[in-house]
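Lab channel / #folding
Pinned by the channel admin:
"Please post every new chain as: sequence first, then the structure tokens as a reply. Keep commentary short and put observations after the output so the thread stays searchable."

First post following the new format, from NK:
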Amino acid sequence: MKKLIGPVLRRDTGYAFDTADAESGLAGGETYRRIEDAYYARRAMMFSTGLAGDDVIVSDTIDDFNALVERFGKTLAAV
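Reply from TO:
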């Protein structure tokens, strides 16, 4: 099962990152007031997923994340 982790982005109320996987689909992350907190949570998620390295894909740009969601979208929706 692939887990996609998106970049930290500025939102209306702070900073957040999105994730996507087969179980929950595309999900918006918790919003953090400080950018450092959002990056810390993102790194923690990268290492605490319990998945093998090949099953976690981390995107550093929103364009890459959107392309991966579109590429794996059929796979994510099928499971």
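NK: The two ends are 9 Å apart (CA to CA).
TO: also worth noting, The chain has two helices and six strands.
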